[in-house]
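Re: your question from the hallway

Yes, I did run it. Sequences:
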Amino acid sequence: MNKPYNFFEYWMKDLKEQNKTPMQAYQEFMQNMLKSSQPKEEAGSQEFFQEMMKTQMEMGKMWFQGVQTMLENFAPQKKEASMFDSWSKMYSAWNSQFGKPFTGQASRNDAAETFKNIMTFSQNYMQLYQLFQPILEQLNMGKKPKKNAFQEFWESISLEKYNEIASQVFGGLTPEQSENFLQQIASFSQKLLDDLNKQTGGTLTKAIESVPDLMHNLQATQYQAFGKLQKSINPFLKMIPDSKEKQLLELNIQLQDDYAFYYIKSNEMQSLVQKTAQKALEQTLKELIEKVKNQPEHIITFEEATNLWMDIAEPMMIELYRSEPFGKLQAEALATSTAIKNRFEKQMELLLEPLPIAPRSEIDELNAIIHELRRKVRALENELSRQQLNQALQSKEAKPTPKNEEAIAENQSKSRGRPKKTQ
Amino acid sequence: MLDGKICNLMKEPINKVLNTKYMIQQQILSLADKYQERTEKLAKSYHILSEIKEIDVGTTPKDLVWKDGKISLFRYKRSTPATIKTPLLICYALVNKQDMMDLQPDRSVIRKFLDLGLDVYIIDWGYVTRADRYTSMDDYINGYLNGCVEYIRRTHQIEKINLLGVCQGGTFSVIYSAIHPEKIKNLVVMVAPIDFSNKEGLLFQWSTYLNVDEIIENNGGIMPGELLNVGFDMLKPMSKLRKYTSVVDMMDDEDKLMNFLRMEKWVANSPDQAGECFKQFIKDLYQENKLIKNELVVGNHKVNMKNITMPILNIYAEADHLVPPPCSIPLDKFVASKDIQTYKFPGGHIGVFVGARSQKELAPTIVNWLKERD
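Structure:
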């Protein structure tokens, strides 16, 4: 891409001089940019620029929506939360759109994963900018910060947004992901249980109806909910004779409990991460204010602020990850997540039982036998090799001969009945 | 619309309103500039990255000379005869790939070794699948590693070879040297955990709380490489944010960019671990520290570190966050070798292989040390 114009300046200038609407000006800017970008002849580049143009137009629309929101909410007390929301949406939309052509045309490219990561962390970078920039504007006004500056800044920050950034940077489930997770669980289980229900003549319908509600209320009831599903369904389970269906149902109930437990543990971990991240932000703000108090003429850049935040947050996070409470939670969540995987596999084996497919458990038995046989073969080969070397060394001592690597290797290959040496 | 809002706000002191208006305008301008700047950088990154079709690592020419299952032994090509007669076998860790030793031509310990006259072999452990779930430490050490050693001894018609073990491969090499001391002339260990009483590294923390049997069993008998990578990220939680936000500024510098991408490729290439081996490594070493207590049993062999009498060069990295120095340094206390040298490398775990000092100082130090004992 050519070094572009400062499109914001261009936009403002155009609005003034040519009396155009913002959208007209923006469209023209994008068209000019497209013309001047000299797309390459290859098929992918042209498509990319068309896609980029399209997404930039989308971004433009949201841009103006953002401005509109800002103007409508123009009041000192309201801060800029809603405006920043619009910015954020705009960037997210652009970000996701922009990634598409790369994924589409360059999925075989070694750098595709790197670009994806760049995109993801760019979004975090911009979210941090949104977080720090209003505070830095205040701090860089050349005045000594007020006594209650920290309190003012702290109150101006949307902790919800900050927690989202923390979740993305340090890992874990965001509230949206948690909700999706629960919905997926409930949906999957419902489908499976519906199928089973057909086979059990509807006996389980009422018990099963409680599943989504139970899942929905888990966060509030936390541990109390854990295991309740199994207990509530146990009487019904006793009524079902031993069968594949019963095993499936039992597995599914265990899965539900595992899901619930995993969800709870993930949220507990997330809470620890967010608390630590908030401490890091508090400390960062205090240090920034202190810096301005001591050096009022010093202009704090965004990079300086984020570097300070990262320098403060990193050791705090490492300390958290090393702590016993986090370590235990992580271990429990990890064990549960792998148990879920295992129960899924068992369910699949039961479901596939009537089909002529070898299940993994049988393959594992074969693997164990193959492994043992290979050990024995390897031991024999090594012993043979040792004997050959001893013979070679003995004959070398008796009558020195030039090194004959090829002959020895060839002999070795023949003795094993398969080509070993590929040099 | 704006006027209307301003009129509504006239109840407040006019200066405050104007200041706020100015501030918000400034914020919009600033934010817009930042978005634009970032957009330009991303677009540029897109163009540059999409034109890169392949990122080469491990390019030093080599031949596949021996293979057993998924394990391969390579011998690096030399244009001139080796000046050090005893060949060197490199035993890398099972975690990540040995390409780190040969990341790119100007950052390659391997090339440096070849230039300085060594005959170099390297083991590629391959990629573990569920079929390898029963592969144990005994298989790796007394089976595959021993198979490689036997091949080299047989090919060169020599009794002893030089062995260089890296990280976990260093631990394996120490164990191998204790079990088969008659086959090793000189032992070099790089950033290898030996004393597991230190609790700072990732696996030290994980081993405290994780039920490794349960996790392996539930993962089909393997430890996923991705899971290990999550753990490694937790050791430096900010490193990804730092590197991915700053990489867009190096797009103009092709050399720097390619260095970055090669490292990315190496990091992403993290094989799964065979469950049996991983379990023993965690339980016997990380949890019970059996190696230095001479209580470790590998296959039919009880590992006695006092059997190690050959010369040892023990290299550790001063700022190693994966294998903290206290895990590597005390090797000399547990072995019977009289000729043992400990070398402090001023850098981190990865810097040992790709740092400028690695090429200029470390590689020549290793080769000279081997030369003196050839």
